[in-house]
Design a protein that fits this description.
The chain has 455 residues and is α+β, with helices and mostly antiparallel strands. Helices cover 44% and strands 13% of the residues.
Length: 455
């Protein structure tokens, strides 16, 4: 492994407030870049709040970051490389958005976006006719929060990606309406919400109930709701504590799979009202403007949506604490280790008596520890003709919950291939729900699709 020379910092000062940094003589650990957590978070917010407004500005920022890179001390070098990688990734997304905006594609008519004439730019971009690259730079900073919004509306990571791109294309085609009576963010949310509602009208998706499969013991409880399009969302794309320190619990609750599945039962417009009002915190008047509704209609839709949502939610958890996180990580580690040892007895001890397992979009489902253990016993027993193979796991986080990326080395092979992403809901010291997803989204979670046998 390559290493870096430890170069002492002479007269180091905090880049946030200019105060001298505390000396580290005789102390181990990496060198501090800021004098306090407050300075570090303030610098982070400033970088996020004031990104370059044009593609050219971002190119110049990348150049500045490259010139300032110094390979020592290691902590400073790592911080600089991380910022550079973020800027380069953003520039790449801007280029892609600009390319797609300039691509004529199909000539399918696009609805006139309500509110396009209310658009106002922020910062130095003031001309009506923006170049593709400058427009892409302007809207790119909203990509992440718009993707989360479209995910809440659709329940699908893949569809959210497509809906954000459609939002940007609609915004580009409606750019001539830049007038100055609303914010960029409000305008984009309006376009994104209407794109989601159009998508719901086209697909007409409705949750169903799972049905028993011949010859399979599903358990004696009522079949759970079946949301075939439900997909996981990587935690890396959710708001961080540095970006929204006061909204961490809210963001976790409103991206949990049980919440995402529950709001799929709402009619599209009620869902939009609930997300805009209760999740994003928009006022009734703002929500009415986004959805082209009256305030009275918004309030009425919200009053109907809330009871329906409560009927499809389990008891809300309120223990978002460090202790709970530590306990849950221990349970995840035991779950992965037991599966790798093919230790069905240990797996069973981690499951609640009324455990629920679903596998969207597949039709398999189980309610109750006994039924689930019976199902697992066939595939985890090397003597069984239906033995699936040997397992390896990598930890992940999805929807504010712990997850495990499972890889299987089938009999007679030498490579572990991605098999399933298990998202766990844990209460107390037991797993109460497992939602198992197909592996095509592994790259979105930073997980490889294959592991070598000697890992």
């Amino acid at each position: 492994m390559l290493g870096f020379l430890e170069v002492p910092v002479v007269d180091a000062v905090c880049p946030g407030c200019g105060k001298p940094l505390a000396g580290r003589s005789g102390r181990k650990g990496r060198t501090s870049v800021y004098c306090s957590a407050a300075c570090r978070q303030r610098a982070y917010r400033e970088r996020r709040a004031a990104p370059p407004d044009t593609a050219q500005g971002l190119i110049e920022e990348v150049g500045r970051q490259v010139r300032e890179l110094v390979p020592a001390p290691p902590a400073v070098f790592y911080s600089g490389v991380s910022e550079l990688a973020t800027s380069v990734g953003r520039l790449r997304r801007i280029a892609r958005t600009a390319r797609d905006s300039a691509d004529p594609g199909t000539e399918e008519p696009v609805m006139d976006e309500p509110g396009a004439a209310d658009f106002v730019t922020t910062g130095p971009v003031t001309e009506v006719a923006l170049a593709e690259s400058d427009f892409a730079a302007l809207v790119e900073s909203y990509r992440r929060e718009l993707r989360v919004h479209c995910y809440r509306m659709s329940g699908s990571y893949d569809d959210a990606e497509d809906l954000v791109q459609e939002t940007f294309l609609r915004a580009w085609r409606a750019r001539d309406g830049f007038a100055g009576r609303a914010s960029v963010r409000t305008w984009l949310y309006r376009i994104a919400t209407n794109a989601c509602l159009d998508f719901q009208r086209r697909t007409a998706r409705r949750p169903q109930r799972y049905e028993p499969l011949p010859g399979m013991n599903h358990g004696g409880a009522e079949p759970p709701a079946r949301v075939t399009w439900l997909q996981p969302y990587p935690d890396d794309d959710l708001p961080s504590t540095e970006e929204q320190p006061d909204a961490l619990a809210v963001s976790r609750e409103t991206t949990e799979l049980v919440f995402l599945a529950a709001i799929q039962h709402l009619p599209p417009r009620q869902r939009a009202v609930l997300v805009l009002r209760d999740v994003l915190g928009l006022a009734a008047a703002e929500t009415a403007a986004v959805l082209d509704m009256t305030v009275a209609s918004v309030n009425s839709a919200l009053q109907r949506a809330r009871p329906t949502l409560r009927d499809h939610l389990p008891r809300r958890r309120a223990d978002w604490t460090a202790e709970a996180d530590v306990r849950e990580r221990e349970i995840l580690a035991r779950y992965m280790a037991a599966a790798e040892r093919l230790d069905l007895t240990e797996v069973a001890t981690l499951l609640s008596e009324d455990i629920t397992l679903t596998m969207p979009p597949n039709p398999f489902w189980f309610v109750g520890r006994e039924a689930l253990v019976e199902f697992l016993s066939v595939s985890l027993d090397p003597a069984s003709p239906m033995f699936l193979g040997h397992w390896r796991h990598l930890p992940a986080r999805a929807n504010g919950q712990l997850a495990a990326g499972g890889y299987v080395r089938r009999p007679g092979t030498t490579v572990y291939r991605a098999q399933v992403l298990d998202v766990l809901r844990i209460e107390g010291d037991r797993i109460v729900e497992i939602t198992s997803f197909e592996p095509h989204l592994f790259p979105a979670f930073g997980l490889p699709l294959r592991l070598p046998a000697d890992r």
